[in-house]
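for the writeup, i need someone to sanity check this before i put it in the appendix. the sequnce is what the collaborator sent (i think, or maybe the updated version? ugh). structure was predicted straight from it, no edits. if anything looks off just tell me and ill rerun, i have time this weekend
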Amino acid sequence: MNGLKLKNARKKFRDNKLPNKKKRLGISLKFDPIGRASQAKGIVIKKIQKEAKQPNSAMRKCCRVQLIKNGKEVTAFIPGNLAQKFVDEHDEVVIERIGGKQGRTKGDLSGVRFQVIKVNDQSLARLWCGKIQKGRR
């Protein structure tokens, strides 16, 4: 086979693998709530508890966050022991990707792709360690 024939054959079958097609068409970027950014600000709508997937049986503390940049609502995990008491409704939070495979969910939390890292411009990790107190907005 000559080079042109090989090239055309590759072009014909390159979309047989779905991840390649998604990457080429930019579909994952198009439907990603925070876009190309690594972090995004949002307002806490409500605090919720999500049940962990089998074989674990835990109630993971999460919150619904409405992003400021585009108004989309996402679910964000609140990491840390008793850290949910520092996150209240109508607080301004900064969220980031939780770091699952291929931008998906991580661990036993289904449908949760983001985690809270700051509350009212205070680091959540420092808040629940007791190093600082929660500021007002």
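The radius of gyration is 20 Å. The mean pLDDT is 90.
thx in advance!!
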